[in-house]
Amino acid sequence: STNETAFIIERSETISTKGFIKIGTVSSNKTSFTGTYLRTNKTYYYRVAASNDAGSSKYSNVVSVRPIATS
Alpha-carbon distance 9 to 62, whole Å? Predict the structure, then answer.
């Protein structure tokens, strides 16, 4: 996107097509986001939308993440 002012980040803990809730917003120049309160060996689903004064874009493709324990 070229005219965004922010990105809206949503996560689902159930399936990749339902149950998404907004968990954060980052500025337009951000390229990363750190999730919190994640359990190891549980799958989470994320999607992102660009946002500006005119509204929001369609959502990105959904990506799944499964945190692993680190030592």
Answer: 11
pLDDT of 44 above 90: yes
CA gap 27, 10 in Å, rounded: 15
pLDDT for res 33: 87
With b meaning 16 or more CB within 10 Å and e meaning fewer, what string describes 29-56? eeeeeeeeeeeeeeebbbbbbbbeeeee
pTM, full prediction: 0.85
Would you say 9 and 46 are in contact if contact means Cβ atoms under 8 Å apart? yes
